[in-house]
Amino acid sequence: MSGDTLQILIAMASYMILVIGIGIFFAKRANTSSENYFIGGRSLGPWVTAMSAEASDMSGWLLMGLPGVAYWCGLSDAIWTAIGLAIGTYINWLVVARRLRLYSHAAGDSITLPDFFSRRFKEKKPVLMTISALFILIFFTVYASSCFVTCGKLFSTLFGMPYQAMMIVGALFVILYTLLGGFLAETASDFMQGIVMIFALATVLITGVWAAGGVGAVLENVRAIPGFLSFFGIAQPQVAEGIQQLDAAGKPLFGEAGAYGLLTIISTMSWGLGYFGMPHVLTRFMAIQHPGELKKSRRIATTWCVISLFAAVLIGVVGRGLYPAELLTSGAAESIFIVLSSNLLPPLFGGIVMAGILAATISSSDSYLLIAASAFSKNIYQGLLKKDATDKQVMTVSRIILLSISLVGILIALDEKSIIFKVVSFAWAGFGATFGPLTLFSLFWKRTTHAGAVAGMLAGGGMVFLWKLVIRPTGGVFGIYELLPAFLFSCLAIVVVSLLTEKPSREIVREFDAVGTMGDGTSV
Fold first, then answer.
1. Residue 397: inside a domain, yes or no?
2. Could you tell me which residues are beta bridge partners of residue 44?
3. 258 has which bridge partners?
């Protein structure tokens, strides 16, 4: 191992030790009850709420997946995704956050999203609870696997070790950390990791622009690539067996720019719709101590999100200008952040910056594992299989499920050719279409019925699989991102079935109306 590599390893190991220390610090408090373990006793302040929500949301794909898209095919795909996500972030905090915080407390003090849906509709048999918990298990397992892929690519690129071994090492670290401290450790470290992530993005972007000779030089380097800087076109790398071809001078070859029309833009921006159904973000809304502080959280979260997203996109553009032939497959392109960090920064400082990737991965995967485990233990085990289960039994089962989910995620992540962005996009669509419409209708449409809720959830989740696997491969107008049609189909199912079934009971209507009159005090 070279001296430079050793310095990088020391910096990243120091960071990992710090994160584990946070988990140990919160372990005692987290283990006092399932409410503390899963939602932190609704004790989060505005800064921690905002930063932990965004850090847990923006997984390793922010530092690897999104820059990789920009590096591989130019500005359009990455920038419209970023715009959609920025708008979705703001609207979610503005519209959903306060209402969900109040309603989740009023609806039997719900501490998980399936719990909220079940109690919101006063279901006697846990149908909604079970369906939503199963979807959470499925999509968060996929999500966790994307984080493990990120760990594997990071460590194997840095240290020249086999991908599979490095992926398993990273996964074991995440599992250990999540088992220790639960939600409080997760949110506390996510606050720190949010700071590390934005620092890492800004540092690499500024250093890359400086190394290229300024903004003008960056633009000059990539302007010759057809469609690379276009908002309405897309660069087309010339590939053979997935590998971009080079000319005699060693420069990468591109074909004519591809079309990027209005339908594609709408499809790409629909990433923003996913926020309304993200359990790891919605849980933060439920956990804040004072609903009145959500306005401050919204400003913090939106600012962080906008800066981070656009910095990530620009890093991909700068990277293509500086290292045009360094990464010759779409999967390898996701390592451009690592290439810039390791080549342009002093080793020890580069290790600190690359800890940002680790920060993004940890902050997301611990959320995914924890929420998936809580969905099963609270909503299926205690809610369906063993209703008299003690708090201790619930937490024991949650840890068993967490380990099981992790094992499946590791098996999925064994494929070294996995593309982080694609894995995340499928899970994102799954959550957005399954839970997004139901969250909005549950909070804001009094006429929503239990049958409508069930229909909407099944329609959205099912359509994601149908569109992704069957319809989208046909291409043409059907080649749009599966989240958009699945989200709309779920909305339609909720409205139609609700109107065709009996109106909600007076108890449900009274609770719905009462939430609308609640203030922002702690006695909600």
1. yes
2. 288
3. 234
C-alpha radius of gyration, the chain, whole number? 23
Tell me how far the alpha carbon of residue 149 is from its chain's centroid.
Answer: 14
| pLDDT number for residue 180 | 63
Element (H, E) at 71: helix 66-73
Out of 12-26, 140-154, 443-457, give the one with best mean pLDDT.
Answer: 443-457
Determine, yes or no, domain membership for 170. Answer: yes
Mean pLDDT of 280-284: 83
* Residue 185 near residue 428, CB atoms below 8 Å: no
Is residue 109 a part of any domain in this protein?
no
Q: Structural domain tally of the chain?
A: 1
**Domain of 54, in residue numbers:** 3-101+132-271+294-421
| pLDDT per position as a tens digit, 112-140 | 788 899 999 999 888 998 899 889 888 88
Cα–Cα–Cα angle for 240, 75, 320, rounded to 5 degrees: 60
pTM across the whole model? 0.87
In CATH, what number is assigned to the domain containing residue 247?
1.20.1730.10
Contacts of 37 (CB under 8 A, 6+ apart): 30, 31, 182, 183, 374, 395, 398
Residue 474: inside a domain: no
